[in-house]
Amino acid sequence: MSEYTMTIGGAAVAGGDTFDVLNPATNAVHGRAPECSRDELEAALSAAASAFPAWRADEAARREALSAAAKLVKEAAAELGAEITAEQGKPLREAKYEAMAGESWLGYFANLELPREVIQDDKRAFVEVVTRPLGVVAAITPWNFPVSSACTKIAPALAAGNTVVLKPSPFTPLATLRLGELLRSVFPPGVLNVVSGGDALGAQMTEHPAVRKITFTGSVATGKCVAAAAAPDLKRITLELGGNDPAILLDDAEVDAVADGIFWSSFANSGQICSAIKRVYVPESLHDALVDALADRARSAPVGPGTEKGSRLGPITTRPQFERVRELVEEAVAKGARAVAGGAPLDGPGNFFAPTVLAGVADGTRIVDEEQFGPALPVIAYRDLEDAVAAANGTHFGLDASVWSADPERAEAVAGRLECGTAWINTHLMQGPSQPFGGAKWSGIGVENGPWGLAGFYELQTRYRARG
Ligand code: NAD
Fold first, then answer.
1. Looking at ligand 1, which atom is closest to the CA of residue 444?
2. Sign of CA dihedral 425, 431, 432, 437
3. Catalytic residue positions?
4. What average pLDDT score do residues 57-68 get?
5. What is the DSSP letter of 84?
6. From the CA of 443, how far away is ligand 1's center (Å)?
7. Which residues face 423 on adjacent strands?
8. Which atom of ligand 1 is nearest to the CA of 143?
9. Which of 105, 195, 217, 244 to mutate for ligand 1's pocket (most ligand atoms within 8 Å of CB)?
10. Burial label, 386 (beta-carbon count in 10 A; 0-12, 13-18, 19+)
11. Which helix (H) or strand (E) holds 147?
12. How far is the CA of 88 from the centre of ligand 1 (A)?
């Protein structure tokens, strides 16, 4: 049974109440997490506020601490990975890789320069533009990548000189609590606080006057609540929200060459990736070949507990999400779609769903229009590329998209017409700490990563020194 403590003001806090955390491969209780009380949240926010003046003042110390944090996360990657697999479900190898991604983000921001620019230096004035951190940052994460999402937020927030209160999803709090425990040795007390609890705790954080910035990753529906909670106080927000990424094949695409890339960009982490391919548009002439190629891969992909050797696709992390995927697949089939592979849950106590490829999906089907966030992929035939582009853009989502073709120039011309934050050509899901990532339309506000992501954690100050 995994039990970890919250980190508040550098100290371990077990909390009065706890809540159970399930293992999605078995639905048995795997661990318990503290239920953060209002007083404990107050203590975390006030510790973060108290730590802010010293932390913002010493950039060299921040870099050193972030580098040390990266090193610690690297050393603990196997331990963190095992905890991620137990609560989130992904295969151990990928879970360890997720922790290593955390290391990359911490290391990257430890070395990223904060901009400082002289814009005038003459006999009238010396004018410089510098950055100022915002203060206490509330960081709220979802359940699909608990550790890497946490590091994606805390690394730039702390590098810019802010202090943080971090709250993971109640479905996957354990690896993040452990991360907080590990990092107690590298950050001064109060700089990084980690609390755990339900959705109400997130709402309390976003409404709290001590918070000056909210960095949130999660669903569109919750993102809108966060924006509303931030508005009365004009808190700064970065929202990384849901996606319904289209992949468009052009008529010169070679099915054999693209099928692996499309399959794994859709089914990795059992489809529970904001930026996974969630619908595929294919010319009529290639439709059957692509459906067959994807269905072959779906039938042969090893599904099983993340701890099982050789397993490539784990369970769906939460029972509500499992039920949602089942409902969307059943609705599509009831409306005339064909489940060419999968189509139903797998036997057993865990949240396993057979990798599903749907053909002949009708317009207006929820699995095309909404974010399924699970191992089920609709393939939609098009006759005219203009219709595919219009369908790809005809949604409130705008996270990413990809275009697949033997001619990258032609693909890029199509990619340029897609309303999204990232457009890939002949690939999908490729991300890194230096590459800005964020959504257009309802998929988000602001970006993470690179100097652009760092800019979400500071404000500019113009310093004008008069001369003469
Ligand atoms: P969710 O919105 O239900 O929850 C996310 C977090 O918000 C959790 O920690 C939750 O406790 C908290 N929360 C819930 N209600 C809140 C409120 N009113 N105020 C403040 N916090 C609140 O999302 P989820 O189901 O955990 O995650 C899946 C979603 O996240 C999908 O839509 C997925 O696309 C999206 N996502 C987006 C990105 C991205 O970078 N764009 C990355 C990963 C996941």
1. 41
2. positive
3. 240, 274
4. 98
5. H
6. 12
7. 401
8. 26
9. 217
10. exposed
11. helix 146-159
12. 14
- Tell me which H or E stretch contains 42: helix 38-57
Of residues 355, 366, 356, 292, the one with CA closest to residue 332? 366
How confident is the model over 161-173, as pLDDT tens digits? 999 999 999 999 9
Q: Are 186 and 174 in contact (CB under 8 A)?
A: no
129-170 residue pLDDT tens: 999 999 999 999 999 999 999 999 999 999 999 999 999 999
pTM of the shown model: 0.97
pLDDT at 362 over 90: no
Output the six-digit token pair for 378.
């609709």
Residue 468 binned pLDDT confidence (cut-offs 50, 70, 90): confident
DSSP E strands: which ranges in 82-169?
A: 117-121, 125-133, 136-140, 163-167
Residues having CB closer than 6 A to ligand 1 are 140-144, 167, 169-170, 199, 202-203, 206, 217-219, 222, 225-226, 240-243, 274, 371, 373, 399, 439, 444
